[in-house]
Specification:
mainly alpha, Chromosomal Replication Initiator Protein Dnaa, Chain: A, 2 domains, 0% strand
């Protein structure tokens, strides 16, 4: 197993890694690296449990997202976390907080169309602009797909202006 053996991280799974890393004040690369110190292994254990609980990923997929671990290792991580949850209410509370934060981050990804690029709906720039004009300033939210539609319309307009010049 090598750290970062793949670059095809699932954004939702990586969000969980980032949330756990942030809670322990380390970079996600620490969690995904080859370090076998007890604290780092514990962070991976939490990530595995959260990926199973929040995303319902298979053990093989969790192992892949954590940098190439096999299903048996991931199964042990999840089982160890389950055992500790039953024995330690503080650990259970910590995982509940991490689960809530992970769900929040993943929800924001989904809300702003940052996941599954191919599934983004096409947006009409004029419709987006009208919605923006009707929305009070403090409540304005523009998705990535909407911003892209506006940018493309702006570039198209610029090109048309340049082409129209003598």
């Amino acid at each position: 197993m090598t750290a970062f053996a793949h670059l095809d991280f699932d954004r939702e799974a990586f969000a969980i890694v980032a949330v756990v890393a942030e809670a322990h004040d380390v970079a996600p690369r620490v969690v995904l690296g080859e370090n076998r110190q007890r604290g780092v292994v514990e962070m991976r254990r939490k990530c595995a449990w959260l990926m199973r609980a929040v995303l319902d990923l298979s053990l093989n997929e969790i192992g892949r997202q954590l940098g190439g671990y096999d299903a048996k290792t991931v199964s042990e991580y999840v089982a160890q976390a389950d055992t500790r949850i039953k024995a330690d209410p503080l650990y259970e509370n910590e995982l509940d907080r991490l689960r809530s934060r992970s769900a929040q981050v993943i929800g924001e990804y989904r809300r702003f169309d940052l996941i599954e690029d191919d599934a983004r709906p096409m947006h009409d720039a004029l419709a987006v602009a009208r919605r923006i004009m009707r929305t009070p300033r403090g409540e304005l939210r523009v998705s990535g797909a909407e911003a892209r539609a506006l940018a493309e319309a702006y570039v198209d307009q610029l090109l048309a202006t340049v082409e129209a010049r003598p």
